[in-house]
Amino acid sequence: MQLELLRKAGPERRAALALRLSSSVIRASRRAIAERHPELDHQGVLLRWAELHYGQELADRVRAYLAARR
């Protein structure tokens, strides 16, 4: 039934649903990191998430950028 509803939904509705689902998954994965690493502050959680999803090199570059801004 859900697949049929998705098929009938227009492209805007399907895109909105996809964005909402992506947002929910990202929030859940960040919460999981925070729970597994209580020593991390909010920024640390975001950096760990970036490391897991975009790689160590990019996360290190962001860390260096943030450190230089202080």
Q: What keyword list fits this structure?
A:
70 residues, mainly alpha, 4 helices, elongated
Secondary-structure map:
Layout: H1 2-8, H2 11-36, H3 42-54, H4 56-69
Helix pairs in contact: 2-3, 3-4
What does this protein structure show overall?
The chain has 70 residues and is mainly α. The chain has one domain. The protein contains 4 helices and no strands. The chain is elongated. The N and C termini lie far apart (53 Å).
Give the structure's gist in a few sentences.
With 70 residues, this protein is mainly alpha-helical. It is built from 4 helices and no strands.
- SS-based class: mainly alpha
Summed up, the domain count is: 1
Helix content: over 70%
Tally of alpha and pi helices = 4
What does the average pLDDT come to? Answer: 93
Shape: elongated
Terminal CA distance reads 53 Å
- Number of DSSP strand runs: 0
Secondary-structure element pattern, one letter each: HHHH
Instruction: Outline the low-pLDDT stretches.
Output: none
